[in-house]
Design brief:
6-stranded parallel sheet; homodimer; 461 residues
């Protein structure tokens, strides 16, 4: 039953905590960020959870050598294996494939280093995770194993081979593409067979789940045998509302409010090609070109969190972002008006402050498994702001009817969507904002968790 | 019945003839090239065919003004409409989308010019074609209309609206991708609704047909109602064998034979990013790096036909091809040995000569609807040459079991496939070569035509 206390082994690359040493050499614990950790906090509160994750820092490796701490098992991988696993296979190879970002004309080129990163990196790290899971199952054979995301596609089959009766579930947090031919046949078979070793495979939306069923058929010549479901992840509403009212966020908000003009367009993203930041600036430039009446009256505040900076594609994209922002400013800025205010920094509280202040929120992702910004921001926005939302974000399936939908490749469409959002009559803005808030409140992360747990019960039955 | 004489209206952008004026000002007729025109010649021989195509040259426009000639109706479009239709929408927008070539991070960007090319180019030219079809149907109401390819997705619905009872078929000669989100919703709906207005929609392979059924479901929320079939196009075997024995081809062959070394790898393609020429050179370089024993003994002869040179992506790709070939030569060439012999020219007879001389034929297309090189070349090859074939070429479904299959993105895999092909024991090479020839002989273009005509009969019944 979904309400009962359960024994769970959660497996994800990043864990809920990471360790460092302070200046005095004492161990300090940092709470992990990211939507996944937040979403799973509800699990830890109500169930018996052991969390298996990679040791990332040097101090993590010491904790791992000590056997973990407080319900968290850290797995220390060989450094070069982890590098190939993380920086070559998971990002960019799988991430780019699943967000359809590879320019197939020229990339990827799976060279000798890529093959080595697969066989001596991705495969090895998955083996390490599987071994750690099996060790936990030895202690607690009835526990359910809950794998997360694209780092761990191979582990479920390894666990299944050793524990035919174990209960295994996998949540894929990113899009599932229709075509996997960017991976050699043996690799794409391993990915699909790994996932099919689970009892439940889940995605955020019906679109990605349907795509998975089809690719099982294409790659393996068979339909998916596990339960394939979809549950849209969400946020902890009361916690998020409290955060938005905190002194720190209010201080940031005062700064933004003091600097803003008549209308404010906000975007909040990681620096990632999947987020479509460059096209967003191009679209804003086109909007200013086509709608002169808005010049001097509206600015775009782009708050971007640096991400995966050791990966060349990400470094190049950060430069392209800066260049695109500058181009708009060079063309349109005046002494009194800066069209694009680009801030690249890890400052989540500033982002929450901007959520409260936007008139238009731009979420134009090329592809996105869900996109939690589209849920967080409307929940706490105080200006009946309008959500402009990519049809390729998972959130569109839930929120599209109250958003202004955009095609992420359609520059003119995005420019006109900004105009439509800025020009929308107040009553209509209020109506949509009300629906967005109500939907997020009624579909919070607890509901996502209940859905997943009910799937496990159904699979076990 | 498939054997009966039929009345057909064939509709394609390029027609079977084009007109020019010679130095004396007299009209001269040039026979169109390309697989489609060749494939459909059998139709013209056995049935009553009116062929509707675009007027391309100035002289074509004069012929159009005179009402056509010899069963060919030429449609003269407004020049700027044709430019938007051909150079922006058909190529590159649709071609790149259907061959999965767009680097979604940065392109396409559907700007004002793209929107205009759609509404004032692609839509208009399709209207012109529909009007020309309706004029023919006025004269011959019982004729079957046979549309071809990605230039004409909108025309069938326009014809259907005016002639609910007409018999309409459409053959799509290029891949059908799983995801159409690169087109704004209204455009992708129009593409799918246009095709669904036919009685029969056909592709080369089951893979593309299945993908079409799925995208109808995704884009329109309904399955395909017409008959969706697949028939692999092929070549005129006896004509092609005769061509291979012609004096001109034999002269070219003597030149190639005189210049060749111990082993010869051949590739023959249009200059097109879909053909994967650059990765082919990279893979050949990697092969020479990994297998030193082949240096000095094997060359790659790349015969490339210039294509779509007014389109920036094609000009850039031609430069990337030249650079990649040079890089291999700079690294490995000696006074006695040129590893890559790159020839960019429109010289089909030279290509046929090379077909006879290869030890390995490399067809590594990123995606390809069919790829007729993979059928033409093994038919006339005289050295029990080995076919190295991309799993993403339509031809792979028929020929894969006798080829060395490659993943087009897998550089190491392609390098090792070249090694495997060059090292294959003679008896195995001969066995595979025999099967390839037998398959092409037994599955020639006449069989493709019979299949299409049988579909029309089944749809009519």
């Amino acid at each position: 039953m979904a309400g009962e206390r359960r024994s769970l082994i959660v497996v994800s690359n990043r864990g809920p905590v990471s360790y460092d040493r302070d200046a005095a050499g004492a161990r300090v614990e940092r709470r992990g960020g990211g939507g996944l950790v937040t979403a799973l906090r509800g699990l830890v509160a109500h169930h018996d959870v052991t969390w298996i994750a990679s040791a990332i820092t040097e101090e993590d490796r010491r904790v791992a050598a000590e056997g973990g701490a407080g319900g968290v098992v850290l797995v220390a991988h060989d450094q070069s294996a982890y590098d190939g696993y993380y920086n070559t296979v998971a990002n960019p190879l799988l991430w780019f494939a699943q967000h359809s970002l590879w320019p197939h004309e020229s990339a990827p080129e799976l060279d000798v280093a890529t093959h080595r990163a697969w066989s001596e990196g991705y495969v090895r790290v998955n083996e390490n995770f599987a071994a750690a899971v099996l060790a936990q199952l030895d202690q607690n054979p009835a526990a359910t194993v809950f794998f997360h995301d694209y780092h761990l596609y191979l582990a479920p089959a390894l666990v299944r081979a050793a524990r035919p009766d174990a209960m295994l579930a996998h949540f894929v947090h990113i899009p599932w593409p229709g075509d996997w031919s960017v991976l050699p046949e043996a690799w794409r078979r391993a990915v699909h067979e790994g996932l099919l070793a689970n009892d439940v495979v889940a995605f955020h939306t019906e679109r990605w789940a349907r795509s998975f069923r089809r690719s099982c058929d294409d790659v393996l010549g068979q339909g998916a045998r596990p339960r394939v479901t979809h549950h849209p992840i969400s946020i902890d509403v009361s916690e998020f509302e409290a955060l938005a009212m905190s002194d720190e966020v209010c201080a940031h908000e005062a700064e933004i409010a003091a600097g803003r003009g008549e209308k404010l367009i906000v975007r909040v993203d990681r620096v990632d090609p999947a987020k479509n930041v460059v096209r967003g600036f191009h679209a804003f430039g086109l909007f200013l070109e086509l709608h002169e009446e808005w010049r001097g009256r509206v600015s775009m505040l782009a708050l971007l969190d640096p991400s995966r900076e050791t990966i060349p594609q990400y470094a190049a994209y950060r430069e392209a972002i800066a260049a695109a922002a500058s181009a708009v400013n060079e063309r349109f800025a005046t002494d009194e008006w800066l069209p694009v205010d680009l801030r690249i920094a890890d400052d989540f509280l500033q982002s929450v402050a901007a959520y409260k202040q936007y008139d238009v929120l731009l979420v134009n992702a090329v592809y996105d498994g869900m996109n939690l910004v589209a849920k967080e921001a409307p929940l706490v926005n105080a200006r009946d702001g309008v959500l402009v939302l990519s049809e390729n974000a998972g959130a569109y399936a839930e929120l599209g009817e109250w958003a202004v939908g955009v095609n992420p490749f359609d520059l003119l469409g995005q420019a006109e969507a900004l105009h439509e959002a800025l020009s929308m009559p107040e009553a209509e803005r209020a109506r949509r904002a009300r629906h967005l808030k109500a939907h997020v409140r009624a579909n919070d992360v607890a509901r996502w968790l209940r859905g997943m747990l009910a799937d496990l019960d159904a699979a076990a039955a």
